[in-house]
Amino acid sequence: MELILKAHFNKFKRTFEIDTSDTSPEKEQGKEASAFEKFVNYVLFSLDYPEIFTADAELLDFVCVGGSNDTGIDGIGIKVNDRLVRNIEEVTEITKKSNKINVEFVFIQSKMRPKFDRTELNTFGTGVKVFFSDRYLPENLRISEFREIKDFIYSNEEVIRKLDKNPSLFLYYVSTGIEPTDENFSGNQKLLMEELTKIGFFENIEIQLIGAKKLIKFCRELENKFEVQMNIIDIFPLIVDNKNDVKKAYAFTCNASEFLKILQKEDGSLRRSLFNDNVRDYLGNNKNVNSEIEKTIMDSPDMFLLCNNGITIVCTNFEQVRDKLVKIENPQIVNGCQTSNSLFNQRNNSNIQNVKLLVRLISTENLGISNKIVRGTNKQNQVLEEAFETTLPFHQEILEPFFLSFENDVKIYYERRAKQYNDDPLIKKTQIVNLRILTQTFVSIFLNSPHDSHIHEAKLLEQYAGEKEQRQIFREDHSPYPYYVCALIWYMFEKWFREDKIDKKYRTYKAHLYLIFRISVGEFPPKLTKLKSMEDYCNKLVQILKEDEFAKRLPKALNIFDVTKDLWVKSRSPYGIKNSKDFSELLLNEARKYFIKTPALVNEEDDKVIYQGTILRIIWKDPYWFGFIKHGNQYEDNVYFDSRGYKGDVKNLSPNTLVQFEREKKDKSYYGINVQLIN
Question: Per the database record, which ranges form the Abortive phage infection protein C-terminal domain (predicted)?
Fold first, then answer.
């Protein structure tokens, strides 16, 4: 392998903590080949979205389909509106919020050998053809999962109705050698292209051979080493206080044809990584803005400069090379995503030569300044508020500093902003969590909702982080400690999955395992707003998350999950468990019964004893009702209560519902008062 490529490969293994060493040379070679396949998949899928796999090693594992029964395919990705999807639910979610959708199918074959082989290309092509036909060859589970998504896309009426055009198909055959140029290979490619075209499913098909030099170039692109020179028309400086850490700020006008130098990669495709920091990506194409912009290009190109708000760019450096020539280093388009996409879509329109636009450019390396610019420039239009979540004080002033200062065996970093820790070679990708990880794990671990944790973070924030008074997550009166604990639980499970210490069959239910492990501490958690109590509780959790203690408790957690699943399937379908609220509640009760021995808690505010139990049954004697709370294991511990002790809707008191209550003695028996549901 070429030395520079090998250096990039080794860096990838280090940052993702992939160990390919083995006492058997044959096994080590197999591990190395498997790691190379993952490396290639990482590079090719990251080109458009460089941070797509940060804190999401599971997604990287998902797109890696190589192994037994892989039909000659090592990587598969299905993109819906430029987003890699991993299940039918994600396709449905994107379809619902979009007026139109675009679909891309990406297939990759990777070989560490320094030469390209026509036989391997043919095998690869056959595997792709089989994927779009009947199941003629044995397929592994990963490929079957992708087949289900593909079948849904081509059969669902809503998806088909919203398809802007037929899906695109991309095949990449990667080797560590030099791309062949002989007629035999080009003939093979043309033949494969014709065979795939006959399937009739695709708007366009592209087959690329990628050798070592091109792969190295892609690796460098991922490091954001990108600069562009472009001709401008007029330029003037913007007055900015030097104290704001803004190196330079300018506004200039330019021809759209010149701006395309920023938007287009060498192969003519859109440089999507330009929009990493642009929050309007969250909106998809749910509005008609793009069509209006493109209509102006087609009908009134001379009016574009007056009708359009322009584009805002943040970059690391800007230089005016000469009067009408500028150089921009590492640009990010923070406002103007839709304008940029419209210009790119109309790049072949003859009118593009008559289009001029306004560009505002800010040169800074200060993340805070960049965040303010993102927020300010996008607030002028309707943008989803959750896109700004990490710019709020709780994240910036509390969470991030807490993660940086917390001393533990494992160092974990909270990446509020994409690429925040890219320049630190000592920080591994496996040590980084982001908003998605913290949101999904917190919902599972502290809000007891593992059935919701697979949902996209934008939807979760919409559900759990609404108005200030109704927020359940990322509240200013929360301690940062439980969020760190969520990150640590996530880290330990990811580490053990990566090291094959946990059977892969449990990965689908990892959010449920997170919850069980939190309960394994043996105590009910205090309210999230009781900072001192919560910190004491989290201290205990951190102790059981140390390697040795984790190893002792993990088998118990897995056993609780298995027992609960067995209970469930005795009376219900085994399908859909992951998304079932009822299963989560059953799991919660089973885990609590096993791990939490004492059901009594002390209320810190008034020293009253607060008991916890589950509803045994409710009995109606019209027009009155009464019920019993199961409290402990013996019948005599069941506690009587009625409407005098519970002021809520009795319909919520179904059997096994968890409640907390106080006890009051009357004659020789106790009855429950101040009965409240525990969410």
Answer: 275-560
214/378 Cα distance (integer angstroms): 36
Bridge partners (DSSP) listed for residue 329: 227, 317
Which residues does 545 contact at the CB level (< 8 Å), separation at least 6? 485, 488, 489, 492
Q: How high is the mean pLDDT of the chain?
A: 84
CA distance 462 to 549: 36
Report which secondary-structure segment, H or E, holds 617: strand 609-621
Which pLDDT tens digit goes with each residue over 490-535? 999 999 998 889 998 898 899 999 999 999 998 888 888 888 889 9
Residue 425 burial by CB count (10 A; 0-12/13-18/19+): exposed, middle or buried?
A: exposed
Number of helices (H), then strands (E), belonging to the chain: the values are: 23, 21
- Please report, for residues 136, 397, 413, 484, 549, the alpha-carbon distance to residue 431 in angstroms, rounded to integers and kept in the order given: 42, 20, 6, 12, 20
3-state SS of 38-67 is HHHHHHHHHCCCCCCCCCCHHHHHHHECCC
Alpha helices in 139-182 (DSSP H): 141-155, 157-162
CB 91 within 8 A of CB 159: yes
Question: What is the mean pLDDT of the segment spanning 176-200?
Answer: 87
What are 569's two structure tokens? Answer: 């399937």
Distance CA 258, CA 402 (A): 45
Determine the pLDDT at residue 173. Answer: 94
Closest of 247, 402, 258, 399 to residue 324, by C-alpha: 258
**pTM, rounded to two decimals:** 0.67
For 483-521, b/e burial (b = at least 16 CB within 10 A) is bbbbbbbbbbbbbbbbeeebeeebeebbbbbbbbbbbbb
Nearest to 76 by CA among 41, 46, 120: 41
